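Troubleshooting: if your tokenizer reports a length mismatch, compare your output against this known-good record of 245 residues.
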Amino acid sequence: MSRPYVALLVPDSHVPNEHKGAFSLLLKAGKLLRPDAVVLLGDFADCESLSAHEPTHTRGARFFRDEVAKVRSRLNCLRSLGASKLHYVKGNHEWRLERYLASNAPALDGLVDLDTLLGLSDSGWEVTEYRETLKLGKLNITHDTGSAGVNAHRTASRDYMGSAIIGHTHRMAYEVSGRPNGLPVLAAMFGWLGDPKKVDYVHQAKSAAWAHGFGVAYFDSNGIAHVQPVPIINGTCCVQGRIIR
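Known-good structure output:
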């Protein structure tokens, strides 16, 4: 039996505001999985120093250069997993740089961009812009299709009229719907890897509903993905039948 093509699906991490324990578990799971592809589902970078919100003492990095350095470091951690394909799907937080430049420094349009600052192309990352779609096998992968909340994954699946994986919501949900004239349709989102104590844009009561975790997709030769959500519970997760701490 041949080994399936394995993709590690990394939800919103909001570096430098990632949860250190949750991100460490992701890396440990990645070493066990030996993925063929790593897919970032958007908002990997927080870009908090470019936020339109008023700053608070909880911010992880006051200057954007410090954020860039930390994001590059975390990207290198993921590259070390040895995947042959690296996909960076951008989210609304990565879009903050474009919005900031448009509002505050339009003369720099075309001279400053996140891809160059993070060295994405030079280090092998294939970029999918915010509001665009990465097609991986029969999966549609994007950060969001304009919806948030508990049903956003279902909305995305309806928007595509097919299987969809999203980030954005920080919630974990997985649903497969049968179709009378075709393959079942998947709708999924995999939580997040951020630290709710470090972000200042949401009430703590709301962030308590968010879940730490990530996803794994196993592709057969026809491009059909067998997708598994991996919740992180009490500092542990289970991958390929093994408990990781």
